[in-house]
Model the fold of this input.
Amino acid sequence: MSQHATVQKQLAAREKKTYWTRRRREQLAGWLFIAPEVIGMLVLAVFPLIFSLGLSLTEWNLVGGLSAIKFIGLDNFAELFRDDRFLQALKNNIGFTVGTVPVTMLLGVVFAAIIHKKLYFKNYFKVAFFVPYICSTVAIAAVWSALYHPSKGPLNQLLIQLGASDPPRWLVDTSWSLVAIMVIYIWQLLGYQIIIFMAGMTNIPDELYEAATIDGATGIQQFRRITLPLLGPTTFFLAITSIISSFKVFDMIKFLTNGGPNYSSTVIVYQIYEEGFQHFRMGYASAMSWILFLIIMLVTSLTWITQSRKVHY
Amino acid sequence: MTIRKIKLGPIVLTVLFGALSLFFLLPLAWMMSAAAKTEKEVWTFPIQWIPEDWHFAENFRTVWMGDVSFGLFYMNSIKIALISTLATLIVSAMAGYALSKLEFTGKGLIFSAMMAFMMIPEQATLVPRYIMIKEMGLYDTHAALILMGMFSSYFTFLLRQFMIGVHNDLLEAAELDGAGFFRIFWSVMLPLSRPILATVGIIKFIWTWNDYQGPLIMLNSTNLYTIPLGMQFFKEEFGTTISVMMMASLAAIIPLLVLFLVLQKQVIQGISIGGVKG
Done:
């Protein structure tokens, strides 16, 4: 009797052991370790994205509660393309991208090459150009809003001293507000571009430059023939991420101009904020969100397509 | 032994770039100087870099010892940034370990899905996330911000890339010694990943500290405000008092500036890994 019990126990133990094979334990561990991240992604990215697509087909003012949701099909999207503010925001966003991305990337790569190859105190320069990137955008915006003051600000005082009789009124001027914000944006982001380009440059083997020097290539030739082509992947990465972040610009706009004056500096994310969180038009704001999402998808895939043809690895 | 020829080019360029870099630092220098001035002196031109009439203490008092003080915003920011950073590190390190060293069904699919999620802009899901937070009863709480900030496929990706490089021998040795997967993760993988964890942690901390959009949408009560929102508050309260605003800006920037100057190597490295390997 007692012997039988022992054997049973041993069998049970062995069965348990064989069930929990290493492979099974690894399966379980894998799922447990990945679970929080996957749940987070589903709850905070996938579900909201689908939810917002659903919302975009409704008219819903949050103030009215859940019962006030009304299905209206594609009306929101139709309205978007008749909405002057949204069209202005779209135009401003495109202008913002065109005005900031090429400038920062060009300055970034040239500055990076010079700092990397030609300058003493390399580390100082890295840090000096990078400091604005670390600083809170809101704090930076506060500083620039003072520098931009139309009559008393140091910038216009300087311009007046240099002979400008009627300097731009920057943030309060409809034709300058967006440009003024672009200047701050470029100032803040340039250091980031320099750092990324320099990181890419350290991966280019020195032998290439040595060989080129022996062949008598000048610095500029080396930059054009070695540095630029070999920076392909870095440039590609920066192109995508900079275009995307230029479409997400919000902090400066909200803090400095609230999209004004007269919608001259409004952008899509600002419009989403205004419609969704100030007017509580959740359906309409969701439709805008989806336009933003589609634009970013389009940009990313277009860049991928051109990349596969142009980038040399 | 040859004496290296001193080249003129680099010296000239260094001086030129030295001047250019000062131009980049000028706005921040102006901020620091204005924070110590009287309102009148802020606007004198040519700029009086060293204040004639020191007003630092008065501005300091307005910002730090008023009815609603920056001290409170600081505590909120520190709390949120620390907790979200820690939570992100745990969640992302766990996922990174699973994706780099464990074999399980669906791993490939999950990894590709995560890469795709990286492309979903946070701004496109702002509205539904706000509604969800409201429905969960978390609107106007710090928990909302922490919850929103603790999952990042980008950081998971970075940690996975690093962990792939950790030698399997080390993990297998631990397994032979009888360690389970959790034990291996905690006692072998995490200590070995310390450099990347530090890097990711610093970047995440900086981003959270500077986040404006999240708190703007999720918070309502002034006593819950983080520093960027506190700046907005000061702008509304003291909009015309630039010296006070500059003192507030200084307060918002100083901790990160110090952190950055002390840990520049990790910060710069952290920013560059995404760009080179990504």
